[in-house]
Design goal:
The chain has helices at 3-12, 20-48, 63-93, 100-115, 130-138, 146-195, 202-207; strands at 14-15, 18-19. With 220 residues, it is mainly alpha-helical. The chain has a two-stranded antiparallel sheet. Helix 3 (63-93) packs antiparallel against helix 4 and helix 5 crosses helix 6 (146-195). The longest helix is centred in the C-terminal third of the chain and has 50 residues, at 146-195.
Length: 220
């Protein structure tokens, strides 16, 4: 690999103030911990009937729709947990292919997060929803007026955009880590091939001319 390519790889492998692998490890641990936490809260909401992000019993949707939402959310969370574990294994073994499932799921998560702005049924559990946040915040207000609603909508919009930008940064970091590990793996392969030398077989070695000068026997 040329010096220019090595310099480009070194610059590309930096994420803020640390290496992209270190940042990716923190992101994967964050998703693993948050997925396990939301799974525990989902199980608690199903057992106790406590409404967590709309997972509890609701009169606005039918029981069949509620069961479908809960089942799909649990499946997504389980897949997110397993893909996070796979990504941790890939980061430890420097295998970029183990990170592909998590990257694909994060793209799906971003799409569901954007769609949650239209309806709160989209998005993984724990995704900020305007309807749920509005119910939680506005019910604590004694008097409702358009100014309070406008301030709440503006604050929620800013926080939601920051939340979405954070997800974009995480996906970008994991993608960069994938390409960096893939490039490093190709570089190691090239170095290993350049070191290997094909030795001749026994028959070929016998046919090779000898480099030593022939021995001459001098008489007395």
């Amino acid at each position: 690999m040329s010096e220019a390519s090595s310099l480009h790889l070194a610059l590309y492998s930096r994420s803020l103030c640390c290496h992209v692998r270190s940042a990716s490890t923190g992101i994967v641990l964050y998703y693993l911990g948050s997925s396990l936490l939301v799974l525990a809260l989902t199980a608690a909401s199903l057992i106790t009937g406590w409404n967590f992000c709309g997972l509890g019993a609701s009169e606005q949707v039918s029981r069949g729709q509620q069961m479908f939402d809960v089942t799909s959310n649990i499946l997504l969370l389980v897949m997110m947990t397993l893909s996070s574990i796979s990504a941790l294994v890939g980061l430890y073994k420097r295998s970029p292919h183990h990170m592909v499932p998590l990257i694909v799921l994060l793209f799906l998560d971003m799409g569901l997060t954007v769609m949650s702005t239209v309806s709160s049924i989209w998005g993984l559990p724990g995704t900020p929803s305007y309807d749920e946040s509005e119910k939680t915040y506005l019910t604590t207000q004694r008097e409702l007026n358009p100014r309070i609603v406008a301030r709440f909508s503006l604050a929620f919009g800013i926080l939601f955009v920051l939340y979405l930008l954070m997800k974009v940064f995480m996906v970008n970091t994991l993608l960069r880590c994938y390409f960096v590990m893939k490039a490093e793996g190709q570089e190691r392969t090239v170095c290993e091939k350049s070191v290997l030398v094909d030795l001749p077989t026994y028959e070929e070695a016998i046919k090779l001319p000898s480099k030593d000068p022939p021995l001459t026997v001098q008489g007395p």
